[in-house]
């Protein structure tokens, strides 16, 4: 899988990010492979979340936030002049730390939200997409009889899978997950992790996690971020078994973090 | 006396004081309602609600035009003030850091503290001097009173919508304006509706701005640019009448109807806000 240029789904070139005058990402370069899980690990405050929020242009929504550098998605620079952030976000699904289904919407409407809010009205198509997405998110069997239930009435783990289904419904090129299991119990976590593995057969997944075991379990590639810099990026096994950088080694062996 | 007993005594004294204070606080409200019912109920019958108003001192007639006038004034006031109030409240809540939003919030606070008679004079200069005493002038004055109330409650309701919900929609590639008008609005619609009703209840009971704008009338609605009656103004006129034996009971009757309308609105508000915590 050691990729030539063509198989990179996402290519990050000297990415810098700021909150007002505090620089939180420094000259990040990274290539993310298609149909694989890439984990971003690092201690709190290292810029993991900021990094993936740069990839779908959510970072700039925070007042005072700024970005420089290039990110290519399928060869197209998402920060190129004249590129509409809204259109970029439509191509990228995002799952957040805390499950955030729309509280006033039913299970069905939550999954259909991305399409409906962007103007799709064809009921047949919506039905199909909702069913497929819920199946892919491994939630179908649990909710197929109560589509009209409020999304907020599901359990935490179910809500997170509902959010994954909502992200899948817009057929994203890329799925970003920001510590998707940090609010879940171990069994719900195991379920999401299995789901991530399965999703990587069809999708490119980038997951931020503070849980090194999780990175080791689910990812094909791992990047270690520290103080806003990408210290090391390699196949997950290489990072965990044979880290090249002393900092990486210290972090994964638990000497700091 | 050990510590425990002294604490119990303190507790008892404080509880008693609290109860007494509560009762004292309720006396004015209870006596107003009881008094109004006692004196007003006998004046109310079908004719009283549906008939045109008789001249002062003349037996018969009703306060139909006043009820109609109040509903029309508040209706037209809402028609223009609610959209402005709601949209400005949303703006202030969604862009809380920018200078326009901060200025708007401050202006709203100033406006909501403005004495209503001043708003009446303002409406008199702006509208009455141009089109005359009229429904339009009254609705204009009441609407100005409604804007800050609606705007403020909308702002509070929208602020309660968690940022994570907004981000979920934005991450789906929904434009910001659409996120606000769909996801954010639907999550806060109960709060917004409550604010609108509170503003309606508030201006339904206003007299001062109407004194200067609608003149009053004994007859049914005759056009938007014609003078009109309103319950509050009718209560005022009847209570000032020299024919006490005829007109004072009518003033009480009109008061009772006014109170019932406002009370009805508050009951709807209670109903709307109840479910939020009940479920």
Give the class of chain B from helix and strand content and strand pairing: mainly alpha
Distance between the termini of chain B: 47 Å
How many structural units, i.e. domains of chain B?
2
Report strand order across the widest sheet of chain A. Answer: 6-7-8-3-9-10
- Category from helices, strands and their pairing of chain A: alpha/beta
CATH topology of the largest domain in chain B: MetI-like fold
By DSSP (H or I, 4+ residues per run), the number of helices of chain B equals 11
What is the 3D shape of chain A? Answer: globular
Strand content of chain B: under 5%
- Radius of gyration based on Cα positions of chain A: 18 Å
Task: Give an overview in words.
The complex is a heterodimer of chains A (257) and B (279). Chain A starts with 7 loop residues before the first strand and ends in a 5-residue tail after the last helix. Helix content of chain A is 35%, strand content 26%. In chain A, helix 3 runs parallel beside helix 6 and helix 4 crosses helix 6 (156-168). Chain A has helices spanning 48-55, 85-90, 107-117, 123-136, 140-143, 156-168, 186-199, 212-218, 236-241, 246-252, and strands at 8-19, 22-33, 37-41, 65-73, 76-77, 92-95, 174-178, 205-208, 221-226, 229-235. By secondary structure, chain B is mostly helical. Chain B folds into two domains: 3-43; 46-278, MetI-like (MetI-like fold), CATH 1.10.3720.10. Helices cover 77% and strands 0% of the residues of chain B. In chain B, helix 1 crosses helix 11. The A-B interface holds A 56, 58, 61, 63, 86-94, 96, 98, 100-105, 113-114, 117-118, 163, 166-167, 170 and B 97, 162, 164-165, 167-175, 178-179, 182-183, 186-187.
């Amino acid at each position: 899988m050691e990729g030539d240029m063509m198989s990179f789904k996402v290519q990050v070139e000297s990415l810098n990010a700021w909150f007002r005058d505090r620089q939180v990402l420094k000259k990040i370069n990274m290539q993310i492979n298609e149909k694989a899980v890439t984990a971003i690990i690092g201690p709190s405050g290292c810029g993991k979340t900021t990094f993936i929020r740069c990839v779908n242009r959510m970072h700039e929504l925070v007042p005072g936030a700024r970005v420089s550098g290039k990110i290519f998605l399928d060869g197209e620079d998402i920060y190129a002049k004249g590129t509409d952030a809204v259109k970029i976000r439509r191509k990228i699904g995002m799952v957040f730390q805390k499950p955030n289904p729309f509280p006033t919407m039913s299970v069905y409407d939550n999954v259909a939200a991305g399409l409906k809010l962007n103007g799709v009205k064809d009921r047949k198509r919506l039905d199909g997409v909702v069913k497929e997405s819920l199946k892919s998110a491994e939630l179908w069997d649990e909710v197929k009889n109560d589509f009209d239930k409020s999304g907020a009435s599901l359990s935490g783990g179910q809500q997170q899978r509902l959010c994954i289904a909502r992200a899948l419904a817009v057929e994203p090129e890329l799925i970003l997950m920001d510590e998707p299991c940090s609010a879940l119990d171990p069994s719900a976590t195991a379920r999401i992790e299995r789901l991530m593995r399965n999703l990587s057969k069809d999708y490119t997944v980038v997951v931020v996690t503070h849980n090194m075991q999780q990175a080791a379990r689910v990812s094909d590639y791992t990047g270690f971020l520290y103080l806003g810099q990408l210290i090391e990026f390699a196949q997950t096994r290489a990072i965990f078994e044979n880290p090249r950088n002393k900092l990486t080694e210290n972090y994964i062996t638990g000497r700091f973090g | 006396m050990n510590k425990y007993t002294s604490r119990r005594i303190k507790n008892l004294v404080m509880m008693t004081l609290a109860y007494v204070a509560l009762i004292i606080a309720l006396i004015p409200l209870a006596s107003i309602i009881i008094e109004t019912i006692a004196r007003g109920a006998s004046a109310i019958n079908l004719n009283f609600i549906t008939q045109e108003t008789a001249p002062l001192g003349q037996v018969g007639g009703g306060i139909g035009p006043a009820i109609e006038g109040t509903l029309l004034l508040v209706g037209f006031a809402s028609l223009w003030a609610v959209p402005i109030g709601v949209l400005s409240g949303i703006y202030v809540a969604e862009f809380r850091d920018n200078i326009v939003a901060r200025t708007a919030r401050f202006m709203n606070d100033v406006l909501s503290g403005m004495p209503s008679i001043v708003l009446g004079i303002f409406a008199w200069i702006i509208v009455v001097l141009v089109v005359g005493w009229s429904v339009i002038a009254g609705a204009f004055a009441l609407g100005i009173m409604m804007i800050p109330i609606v705007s403020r409650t909308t702002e509070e309701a929208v602020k309660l919508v968690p940022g994570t919900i907004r981000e979920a929609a934005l991450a789906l590639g929904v434009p910001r304006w659409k996120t606000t008008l769909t996801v954010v609005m639907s999550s806060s619609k109960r709060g917004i509706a409550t604010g609108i009703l509170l503003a309606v209840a508030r201006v339904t009971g206003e007299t001062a701005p109407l004194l200067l704008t609608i003149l009053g009338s004994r007859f049914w609605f005759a056009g938007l640019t014609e003078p009109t009656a309103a319950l509050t103004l009718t209560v005022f006129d009847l209570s000032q009448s020299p024919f006490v034996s005829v007109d004072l009971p009518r003033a009480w009757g009109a008061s009772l109807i006014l109170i019932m309308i406002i009370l009805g609105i508050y009951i709807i508000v209670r109903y709307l806000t109840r479910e939020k915590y009940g479920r």
